[in-house]
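Researcher: I'm preparing a figure for a lab meeting and need a structural model of a single chain. I don't have an experimental structure, so a prediction will have to do for now. The sequence is pasted below. Please return the structure as tokens so I can convert it later.
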Amino acid sequence: MALSRFFAFVCSGLLLLTLSVNAWAVTAVPAGNRNATQPEVPRDAVIRTQQTKDTFEGKFQKVLRLFENDRKLISKIQKTAKRYDIDPIHMIGAIVGEHTYNVDAVDQLQAYYIKALAYAETRIRFEYDGESVTDFVERPEFASCEGLSDSYTLWTCREDVFNAVFRGKSHPDQSFGKTFFQPLFAGQTFGLGQLNPLTALMMSDMAKSHGRQRRLDVRKPSVIYQTIMDPDKSLHYMAAVLRTAIDDYQTIAGFDISNNPGITATLYNLGGTKARATALAQENQKRSASGQNPKLPEENYYGWLVNDRIDTLRGLLN
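Model: Understood. Here is the structure written out token by token.
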């Protein structure tokens, strides 16, 4: 029954995609925040910061210093953003948000390169309860994903199946990424861009086509970890995530979010842009039917900071 409901969800989502693209012209989301005050910061982020005897403002200033002291990093961000046809401010915003609320910025970029080398020499397996993820996705429940060749579509499909059929039932009530892709480490995300290995797999084809990166192989976990820890490589996957978010919201929900770094930062933080864009499109179809104006995408606490400090962040690019 769960599987049949999942297939119905996929079919309705595809139908909605067609309807949403044709239902209204693309609407440009204005710059700035929709919320007058910052949405509540999650308790986990507050506790993490308190444990380091720091403050969010202190961490924000620390990541600013990282950028100010490493102009090569700014140059790399600008060059990478150009490859993916995005404003580099989206990449700046994502990095600032991650290091203000989730982790502390390292003092020098060199520390990430050193960590990348360490991960490359570490034996890692993507598995849960003794079953590798490669065997897991061969189960018959994943039949709907067969034939999908694009890495984003393929791994998103597999994530959707996991959530619909396995999550909270035969497997823990937690994300696909956390269940199978963090076998040795307490954290869920890694590196300058705080990327999840599953996210990197999803972005593999775009990073290859736009950034000439090698296609990632799920059978080589150490290479994936090394990739997301290496700033030169991880910047491409960051840019791919942001490009994908912009594309998903335009094609599915009918919104151009390319001029609102707070929205793209929010989506970078939350993930699941295709599902979120679909949910927003569904909501706006209902609102349209009842004569209401469409709901615009909104920033969360993380994206709110990016928009609130946008002048400071843009100054880093000058």
